[in-house]
Amino acid sequence: MKKLLSALTFCFCLFSTLAQAENVKNNKMKIRLTFKDKEVIVKMADNPAARRLVQMLPAAFKFTDFAGQEKIADFPKPVSLTDAPRGMIAEKGKMFIYAPWGNLGFFYKDHGHSIDKNLIELGEVESGLEHLNSQKGGFTAEMSVISGEE
Question: Is residue 5 classed as helix, strand or coil in its secondary structure?
């Protein structure tokens, strides 16, 4: 009986991970950041780096403000950047990885007008960007996967 339950649990976890990866691939995956009674919804990009992040969730991230234009955090564990497409414009609302440092970030203000090859796009904020903009100092946010229909 224990072996059957273990096998069923394994299959469920595998199916759930594959379903999440498929949703990202079909550009339906969304994630939610929650902090201090605030919520930010992000539509994930369709690329290997975004799929790797989704596989880490749920997780907590400690954010700090950087340059008065972005919120940044370290990943709980290193993320492989293999096959991740580099290059994006640093526009407000974009979620990204800064490749040289290997960290995660959100631009809450426009930061540039040309493509920066050090950036890997993870997604785009659909709602709640004002919460990132108004958040002063460091904060911890819970990040989790939500259905693509929310």
Answer: helix
Which residue is associated with the tokens 């609302």? Answer: 93
Residue type, 139: F
Tell me the sheet residues that pair with 140. Answer: 62
Q: Give the dihedral of Cα atoms 35, 80, 78, 71; nearest 10 deg.
A: -40
Place of tokens 């594959």: 18
Strand 88-89 and strand 115-116: the pairing is antiparallel
Task: Provide the Cα torsion 43, 97, 51, 81; round to 10°.
Answer: 160
91 beta partners = none
pTM of the model: 0.80
Give pLDDT tens digits for 84-142: 999 999 999 999 999 999 999 999 999 888 999 999 999 999 999 999 999 998 999 99
